[in-house]
Amino acid sequence: MIRPNLVRAAIGVALFAASASVAVAPAHASSPAVTQTQATMVGTFSFAGLPAGGGGPHTPLVPSHQPMNKTLHHTAASQVPTVAGTPLSGGTGGATGFNGIDVVQQTNAGTGSYSGTQLDVTPPDQGLCVGHGDVVEGVNLALRVYSASGTPLTAAVPYNQFLNLAPEQVTNPDGTFTFGPFLSDPKCYYDPDTGRWFMTILAIALDPATGAFGNTAQQYVAVTATSDPTGTWNIYTFATTDDGTAGTPSDAGCPCFGDQPLIGADA
């Protein structure tokens, strides 16, 4: 039942806010057709009522096992080369910025059953979008809303909590772990025509007891109900396994997952 060597299949996602339909590029370049699939609404999330600071501090969890993909190798910090910093330009050019989500905020994100369940994960995959005077940022497995000046408008929230999924990794009383799905590659887009915010992230099933990769994959799409990103988001999902299950096409070499899905829109 467990198949850790899922094929990485790149997909592109074009969102249509009015119908919530999704155009999905083929998982394999040899297939010339672009298919249409209907995303299913699976719930909602609201920042309302969450404490501004999120959950209390805890010792960041370290993944309890090495990556299942044998082609991935960890590098010791002593082996990483250092490069001298070089300014991009001689002047400020009027550019300004602020500190976004850091590793401490990510690992301490979460309330209720999600408190103390976040892993210390790298590298910092980011999804960032700006519009309507606000900034929405997702880094790895947490997201947060800021004003354009950098003032946090919400707590940092785990993506697992945002999507109403099982927590990333729960430590049981007997010292064992219970794993939620594997999430990765957040993307964010603000659409000025509809005044809506879109957030996407991929998901791969994990065995809850062992953390081994399963054989099903999905793409989650979150869309704000209004132009306010601190309010309610509607959560949609569609399958990307492409092995003939859940209405997906049957492609050779699958089950697959949507590696680094992209998000965009036109007029």
Describe this structure in words.
The structure is a single chain. This protein has 267 residues and is mostly beta strands. The chain has helices spanning 103-107, 159-162, and strands at residues 7-16, 21-24, 35-38, 40-46, 126-131, 134-139, 142-147, 157-158, 169-171, 177-179, 182-191, 196-206, 213-224, 232-239, 256-264. The strands form 4 sheets. A 5-stranded antiparallel β-sheet has the order 4-14-13-12-11. A hairpin with a 6-residue loop joins strand 12 and strand 13 (213-224). It is globular.
Structural topology:
Layout: E1 7-16, E2 21-24, E3 35-38, E4 40-46, H1 103-107, E5 126-131, E6 134-139, E7 142-147, E8 157-158, H2 159-162, E9 169-171, E10 177-179, E11 182-191, E12 196-206, E13 213-224, E14 232-239, E15 256-264
Parallel strand pairs: 1-15
Antiparallel strand pairs: 1-2, 2-3, 4-14, 5-6, 6-7, 7-8, 9-10, 11-12, 12-13, 13-14
Give the rounded overall mean pLDDT. Answer: 79
Strand order of the largest sheet: 4-14-13-12-11
Q: Tally the beta strands.
A: 15
Helix content: under 10%
Number of helices: 2
Strand content: 35-45%
Instruction: Give the terminus-to-terminus CA distance.
Output: 44 Å
Q: Could you spell the SSE succession in H and E letters?
A: EEEEHEEEEHEEEEEEE
Rg (C-alpha, Å)? 19 Å
Give the structural class. Answer: mainly beta
State the major sheet. 5 strands, antiparallel
What global shape is seen? Answer: globular
Uncertain spans, ≥5 residues at pLDDT below 50? 1-5, 10-33, 54-61, 64-73
